[in-house]
Amino acid sequence: MIEAPIPVVKVRMPPRETLLPALERVLYGGMIGEGEEVYALEREFATQFDLPNALAVSSGTAALHLAFLVCGVGPGDDVITTAMTAEPTNTTILQVGARPVFADVEPDTGNLDPDAVARAITPATKAICLVHYAGYPADLRAMREIADHHGIALIEDCAHALGASNAGTAIGTVGDAAIFSFQAIKHMTTADGGMLTLKDPDALDKARRLRWFGLSKGVPRTEVDIETAGFKYNMNNVTAAIGRQQLLTIDEGIARHTDNGRYFDQAFDAVTGVQPARVRKDSSPSYWLYTLLCDDSHRVEQALIAAGVTASKLHRPNHLHSVFAPYATPMPGLAAFYTRLLHLPCGWWVSDQDRERIVSIVADAVK
Prior knowledge:
Blueprint: H1 16-27, H2 36-48, E1 54-57, H3 60-70, E2 78-81, H4 88-95, E3 99-102, H5 114-120, E4 125-131, H6 140-150, E5 153-157, E6 165-166, E7 169-170, E8 177-181, E9 194-198, H7 204-211, H8 237-247, H9 250-268, E10 274-276, E11 283-284, E12 290-294, H10 297-306, H11 332-340, E13 341-344, H12 352-365
Helix pairs in contact: 1-8, 2-8, 3-4, 3-7, 9-12, 10-12
């Protein structure tokens, strides 16, 4: 019997004995669109992860689109961003009519380099969009100082980093806006969905109206006035019900990612030819993906795949896509990071035996 490969990412669902009754209650309760289930998820998510002013939406990308709009980003503006991310981070910048300005990343983390960000600031800069890549927190203190000094918005893309923290505070609380993804393979999924959080509670009403065509919910349609065209970005009660059940066990799921990540950090630190991605001293990653830097990443990847362990670089640097070619610029830090990059499985499905075997395979491959 051939064992199934250990995947890099995997869908995590709540126990069926609790999830299915919750879904049945919503599906046959007469209200499957946006309603109390969604609003309960917003409150519970914000409380559980110590986040401000949460708004549930249809995807993490929708949340990011709203974040840009609420922060005033529009046509003619520049947004300093990273090319080392999933593409929606930057296609959304184009969607609002702004220009992505790619700043270089730290070669040992893949996160935006604060010095590179500072150099990229111009009078046209409206916001900084940072990604906590693979669940490793970026240098938020430095980014906040840069944003405040220049009077621009700081937006945190926390799609990879649910449950991570920086300097003892939750990821998503330092930026003017932050987004989380509940897409299928993230730490927590609602099948698809996302959450927008905003530091300024006064901005929440605007975001809420943009979520629903520009309309205010709870007011008769004959009595409302659309001042700004919005979108159909609402979450529905069915996906929210999944999310509420996820919250009951998400801490233990994230804890397993973290435990495996820390195990790998210690184990790979002793292996010549590879290097764990650097973890900032004041941060606690949530290790959505384990990031290993290898002198010969191709050789290590092939050894793992041959042994039934899925490993890959997962993302393509965005500036290599044709749509972003006009914004490409030399980024030696990113080039160094991507050359050495290899993502390994480290989620809740990776057992103690699995992680020991993964370390052994990597060690043998670099001998």
